[in-house]
Amino acid sequence: MTVDILPWHQAHWQRLNDQIEKASLPHALLIAGPPMSGKQGIARALVERLLCQGKDAPCGECHQCQLVSAGTHPDLLHVTLEDSKQILINQIRGLIDWASQTSQQGGYKVCLIDPADRLNIQSANALLKCLEEPPAGTCILLITDQPKRLLPTIRSRCHLVNCRLPESEEALAWLQERNESGIDTALLLEIAGGLPLKAVASVTDGYLALRKKLADLLTGVTMGSESPIQFAAGVAGEDPTEVLDILYQLIADTIGITLCGEVVIRNSDLKIKLDEFASAVKVERRFELLDRIAHAKGLLGSTSNANPQMLFESLFIEAA
Ligand SMILES: [Zn+2]
């Protein structure tokens, strides 16, 4: 079985494999990097590598590999968000209990905590004790987009695997081989903010269409042909965080156009629409909108139950 590790993460992968072979793998790894940077790919490959008991691990064929693939391996625990926006102490108590038992399949035990930045203070403190006295044969993988949100004491007890973004030439070469969209590869990468995995996903998951729709709605709502309520209705059902991210990028691009002229903008295929917006809305108001979007994104990510529809309406009502 070939493990699908991105070329720019191969050095990490090689080092982790060397550590496994020398039985010196740290008991806790913090796998950090921007969204869609390939963190989950490394974590998944590591889970398969650690739990496989076949030759040339991960073999993809042994009983262990089959259990992992079916999502039923008893020595693999996945701690993630359940009904709350935080990882709660009960979940970490469950982890500690699981970690204290011997391996059911006689090999490593692996726990994934994802997103690790959502540990609350109680659960982080409970986890800390487990990291200080790690049970033998257990590997804890903490995955996060925002490593700085973890307690420094947690960070310092984990070995960091920093999933960097590729250089643009490296990313373009990789993407070129996979781009069957008919869209220019450089443009596709630019729209995805330099994230090659996001560029691949954007072709199939509706991201490109959503971006175009938002450019129209944004122009409509700021020029008065659509009301804020119509705007909110137009984005109902979409991922609110993604909508805010795209709005932020579109408006930031218009500021780039106004202030820097020929600067390279991310959404260059929508330049006509962005020019229209830039000429109709004062740059001060566009900066204000960026602040409001950043604030709304913070509210969505916080533990308060922000209502996305009201957030979208208020973005434009209050800025008017
Ligand atoms: Zn196997």
Structural class: alpha/beta
CATH class of the largest domain: Alpha Beta
Unreliable stretches covering 5 or more consecutive residues: none
Name the helicity range: 40-55%
Distance between the termini: 57 Å
CA gyration radius, whole angstroms: 23 Å
Name the bound molecules: zinc ion
How many DSSP-defined strands?
Answer: 5
Number of domains: 2
Shape: globular
Known CATH architecture of the largest domain: 3-Layer(aba) Sandwich
Please state how the strands of the largest beta sheet are arranged side by side.
Answer: 2-3-4-1-5
The overall average pLDDT, rounded, is 91
Query: Strand-residue fraction?
Result: 5-15%
Secondary-structure element order, as H and E? HEHHEHEHEHEHHHHHHHHH
The CATH fourth-level homologous superfamily of the largest domain: P-loop containing nucleotide triphosphate hydrolases
